[in-house]
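Incident log, support desk, overnight shift.

02:14 A customer reports that sequence design results differ from what the structure should imply. Their input is reproduced verbatim below. On-call engineer (initials T.W.) acknowledged and began investigating.
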């Protein structure tokens, strides 16, 4: 056995094993998920089929879709239902079939709400957080929030 040739292989094998052991976890943060629900209205009327996004500067991004009563429940792609406790920028986006309840006309939610956000909120360590947001047809600067950058 030629130790000179075997030593580099040994170190490579040890490094590979250490890397594998160090990376053998799930690769997911250990978040305690909190139930987050709410209602989206447009000038007092429930909004149906709107996308609601809670964007965090760090951590999991949570999302939901409003039902016929404007109600949503958040979930994440990786961690399931709810959202981790923390600060979020809430964005509301229209889709093709977004509308005010009992209307046949599609609702175009202002780009200000979609890009800059509706509000900054804090999901607490309580068991459930519930939020209500009433959107306006023509929001002014006081009705929208500056963006926070987050990860997907």
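02:41 Re-run completed on a clean worker. Output:
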């Amino acid at each position: 056995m030629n130790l000179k040739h075997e030593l580099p292989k040994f170190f490579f094998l040890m490094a590979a094993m250490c890397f594998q052991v160090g990376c053998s976890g799930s690769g997911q943060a250990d978040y305690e998920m909190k139930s987050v629900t709410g209602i989206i209205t447009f000038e007092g009327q429930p909004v149906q089929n709107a996308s609601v996004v809670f964007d965090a500067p760090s951590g999991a991004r949570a999302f939901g879709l409003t039902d016929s009563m404007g109600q949503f429940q958040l979930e994440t792609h990786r961690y399931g239902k709810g959202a981790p406790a923390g600060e979020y920028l809430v964005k509301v986006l229209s889709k093709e079939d977004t509308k005010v309840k009992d209307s046949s006309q599609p609702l175009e939610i202002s780009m200000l709400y979609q890009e800059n956000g509706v509000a900054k909120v804090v999901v607490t360590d309580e068991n459930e957080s519930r939020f209500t947001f009433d959107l306006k047809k023509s929001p002014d600067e006081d009705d929208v929030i500056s963006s926070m950058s987050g990860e997907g």
